[in-house]
Amino acid sequence: MIPRPQHNEQKPKVSDQKKAGYHHGDLKEALISAAKQLIQDKGPEGFSMAEACRIAGVSPAAPYRHFADRDELVGAVASQGFDSLTDRGKEERDKHPPGSVASIVALGQAYVKFAADEPAIFRLMFASHKGEDAFHDSVKQQGDRCFNILLKAVNAFQEAKGLGTTKTLDIALPLWTIVHGTACLLIDRDFDAVAPGTDPDELVRIATEGFLAGISTKLAKV
What we know:
Layout (H helix, E strand, L loop, with lengths): L13 H7 L6 H16 L6 H8 L13 H24 L7 H17 L1 H10 L5 H28 L6 H20 L2 H5 L5 H21 L2
Helix pairs in contact: 2-3, 2-4, 4-5, 4-6, 4-7, 5-6, 5-7, 5-8, 5-10, 7-8, 8-10
């Protein structure tokens, strides 16, 4: 079962700060790790570059070797979040036969679990790609790469069912809506208010299986 998102997260402990510190010249990753801790604790707007430097154990001038400003550092955290979500999705999808309904269900469940595990990062990811500069474009590219694993899973499903592959996006978008909506309702605790005891895993499974059964019937008649 997907765990409930944790609220009132504690500030990074000294031991955590040391883990995020600057080791073996890996300055960029140390800063991203520090920023991630701060975002989880204070939100993306609630910390300064100086605080990230303090946790990473570097001088205030050090970040500018890799990041033009704090926004770029925050964007790097968002990009890394999409990378992690992509990897989790692939891992769970690949536990099932290609083209199977189970593989798509697993992909959706992994998406919701990521949101439950990393609510602050999840929210950041879907805010950071909304911009016009090159860095925001980079975050969007990582988001597109993440969405592409769903497109591939749906395409494999269509081929396995002999449904053709011209409606891939039309099938993928409702599936994404199911899991993204579930994730947001979960981390915002709306289920607790409206439907206490909701099992997100089961909700994703029922909704995904029902939708795919319906769309398969519809496309088979075309």
